[in-house]
Amino acid sequence: MAHAYTPGLKVLAHTELTKERRLPLPGEILVKKGDRVKAERVAARTNLPGNVQTLNIAGLLGILPDEIEEAMLKKLNETVKKDEIVAQSKGLFGLFKSSVRSPIHGTIENISKITGQVIMREPPIPVEVIAYIDGEVIDIVKNEGVIIKTQGSFIQGIFGIGGETIGELAMAVDDPSTVLTEKEIDKRFANKIIIGGSMVTFDALEKARQAGIKGIVVGGIEDQDLKRFMGYDIGVAITGSEQVGLTLIATEGFGQLNMAKRTFDLLKSLSGKKASINGATQIRAGVMRPEVIVPVEASSSLKRTTDISAGSGLDVGMSVRIIREPHFGAIGKVKELPVELSMIETEARARVLTVQLENNEVITLPRANVEIIEE
User: Fold this and answer.
1) Would you state the torsion angle of the CA atoms of residues 291, 295, 298, 302, taken in this order, to the nearest 10 degrees?
2) Is the pTM of this model over 0.90?
């Protein structure tokens, strides 16, 4: 029997995770295979080439291009300081000399007698890649990066902003339906990742930024509040590079949406533990979800969660979230999966499923209108 693809949203209490940590350019690997590393440890580093500046020496000094070498006070590959004189004309009878000063700290990379120009390069930019999660280095990609494995809890959100950050989880509210406002934010949450309920307000975001909070995980956010907080309208391709002072993850979507109880309860049980979060979201090719990772040592009380993302599709008893109106954001269990096509509201015929919602209401809707919640 064929299965329609149904996207999955992971809420895993205990699973095995691997993360590949790669440099943008070949560089130096600072850990060895088998090492146990902390999330904050630098695993690899490299240097990005500095920005290039071009100086039209011949034009600025009023000389011919092939006279440039005689005018240069600094030679090829020499370092220069900002505002240091790099070239000077002979002048008239040794007087009225013109000079050109360096606009940057950097190195003379090229002197051209054809164009009369000098190419200068700023100092290299150091780049470090941290481990991001507590775990074990299980493989080394020579000169490029490492692969790290850990055991722990893994939660995916619907949407996020801001990049990777690490901090202790703390509960800011006691109920998944509570709106996170500025009243719940104070300095005791500095350098922590706080958990909210159904929504976070603009004033709460501003106060969190001022209090030095590293991240917020919450059910939803109003689109206009997000735009106001960031200062611009966010694009739809990919997020994660925003420099807004904190990382924000919405687990349910836009608007006031209660955080799923299982998600809230899991985060509550992890309160006080170190978490790694990333708000990067990509909704087109190569889908990327915002994530919360909490490394937890394996114990007999923790049951390994099966990853069903590579499974055969929907099945009776699975937890699903409805991703379209009129029940957007609602969560329930798959009750029936009829094989035959059914007529839907648009008068098209499609495969449907029957879902029992958390309030015990039973509804029938197209399979494309749900996503699996992996737990």
Assistant:
1) -40
2) no
